[in-house]
Design a protein that fits this description.
Blueprint lengths: L2 E6 L1 H9 L4 E6 L14 E6 L4 E14 L3 H15 L5 H4 L5 E12 L14 E3 L2
Parallel strand pairs: 1-3
Antiparallel strand pairs: 1-6, 2-5, 3-4, 4-5
């Protein structure tokens, strides 16, 4: 079991806490974390950009796509669009995606006292341990 630190927008944090966002989809042109770095039962600390860690969730399961084909993109859109809260124009703004990580969320909890994790760079995902 590993621990991760992920950066989120205020809107995404709200959606995760409300239960509307059930899958964290990470899309990139280059192979960067969390691609192939996250597994079931890992802990993901949720941090607001430029602010403190506000909560965490346990990873239920993960699906990875390496250079997805059009059929796979269609599958992701049809099956998981609602759980990922994808905008209708999502693929227009993410035309060139080579690596996809679909991280299924369970056991979300808020922190009353935020843990301290030193992070001073712009990476949106960091594997802590």
């Amino acid at each position: 079991m590993a621990k991760h630190l992920a950066i989120y927008t205020q809107g995404a944090i709200k959606e995760i806490f409300s239960g509307k966002l059930k899958i964290d989809g990470r899309f990139s042109k280059i192979k960067i974390p969390p691609f192939l770095m996250v597994a079931a039962d890992d802990i993901v600390l949720m941090k607001l950009s430029g602010e403190k860690i506000v909560g965490q969730f346990v990873v239920d399961r993960v699906m990875y796509f390496d250079h997805p084909r059009v059929e796979e993109l269609d599958f992701i859109t049809k099956k998981y669009k609602g759980e990922m809260q994808l905008a209708s124009n999502f693929w227009l703004t993410h035309e060139k995606v080579n690596f996809i990580s679909l991280i299924f969320i369970r056991e979300v909890s808020k922190f009353l006292v935020a843990p301290e994790v030193p992070k001073k760079d712009l990476r949106p995902w960091v594997v802590l341990e």
